[in-house]
Amino acid sequence: MSDELFVDGILGVGFGKGAVRIDFFALGEGQDAKGQPTKERRQRLVMTTEGFVESYAMLTGVMEKLKAAGLVAARATPGGGAEKTRAASSGSLGGGGGEGGSPSPNF
User: Model's pTM, two decimal places?
Assistant: First the structure.
C-alpha cells in the first residue's frame, strides 16, 4: 500500500541548485482579508530537472485528455495565448504560484 496525499493546489514553484521545488496547499479553516479560505502549505515535492520535465510531459498528456473529454476549455490569456482554465464542476484543476506569487522565502 502507498501513501496518498490530497491537496487543493500548488502554492508555489521554484527552481534552484538543480532541483525544482513545488509547494502544495490545502484550504484551511480560517479566512484571509478577502473572506476566502486560507491556503496552508502541506507538502513540498523536490525533484530533479529531468524528473520535472518527465512529469510535465505526463501532465500535458492528462490535460489533453481532460480537454478531449470536455472537462477543461481553452480561453484567451492577456498574452494572446490559450490557457486551459475551466475546471469540472466537481473541483478545481488550477494551481497558483509561479514567478512572483510564492509566499515562501525559498523561491
Answer: 0.64
Cell of 54: 518527465
Query: Is 104 in contact with 14 (CB distance < 8 Å)?
Result: yes
What's phi and psi for 33, nearest 5 deg? -65, -25
62 Cβ neighbours under 8 A, 6+ residues apart: none
Place of cell 470536455: 70
Per-residue pLDDT 10s for the chain (107 aa) are 788 989 999 999 999 999 999 999 999 999 999 999 999 999 999 999 999 999 999 999 999 999 999 998 876 555 555 544 444 333 333 344 433 444 444 44
Burial 55-81 (b: 16+ CB within 10 A, else e): eeeeeeeeeeebeeeebbeeeeeeeee
| CA 89 – CA 74 distance, rounded (Å) | 16
